[in-house]
Design a protein that fits this description.
By secondary structure, this protein is mostly helical. Helix content is 80%, strand content 0%. The chain has 6 helices and no strands. The protein has helices spanning 3-19, 27-41, 45-67, 80-96, 102-118, 121-159. Helix 1 (3-19) packs antiparallel against helix 6, helix 3 runs antiparallel to helix 6 and helix 4 crosses helix 6 (121-159). It is elongated, with a radius of gyration of 16 Å.
């Protein structure tokens, strides 16, 4: 697979990760489709291993999502900007502290967005708790799964 094709797969992965934060966009399935496309174009054992792992992770994440409250992130009063801060925080946390940093990054991003919107610490902390109860855990589950898949793909491309 050429550099431009790999770059295009990476762009679709990023669109899928961003799609998790946008209601109605099938973000996890875009991520899976990008990995499928890569595995079909580059049929090596590593590519197929990443595809199988991505499939299993997405199925597990879907099962976990059914156990969590439905996605009502916006109904909690959180804005699109807050969702973008949460996504950016999860991405930065995932890169700074590999894998486990996505959790504090996501929650920290929500807090930062609410702190900028509301102004005070108490109001922002309350809004963060409300947002997490209103579907933040569901969004975090999907986002974390997509970040894991994208990280596995990137690792396979770089070192595989």
């Amino acid at each position: 697979m050429g550099v431009w094709e790999l770059l295009l797969v990476g762009v679709v992965l990023l669109l899928g990760i961003g799609g998790v934060l946008v209601p109605g966009v099938p973000g996890p399935w875009l991520v899976w489709a990008a990995v499928l496309w890569w595995a079909l174009q580059d049929p090596e054992p590593v590519a197929w291993g990443v595809l199988v792992g991505a499939t299993v992770l997405l199925l597990v994440a879907q099962g976990v999502r059914w156990l969590l409250p439905p996605r009502r992130f916006r109904e909690s009063g959180a804005t699109r900007r807050t969702a973008m801060y949460a996504g950016a925080g999860a991405l930065v946390g995932f890169c700074v502290v590999p894998v486990i940093g996505a959790l504090p990054g996501f929650i920290g991003g929500i807090y930062l967005g609410e702190r900028l919107r509301l102004g005070g610490h108490g109001e922002a902390a309350t809004a963060t708790r409300t947002a997490m109860r209103a579907g933040g855990w569901s969004v975090l589950t999907e986002l974390f799964t997509c970040l894991l898949i994208a990280g596995a793909w990137l690792g396979a491309v770089m070192w595989g």
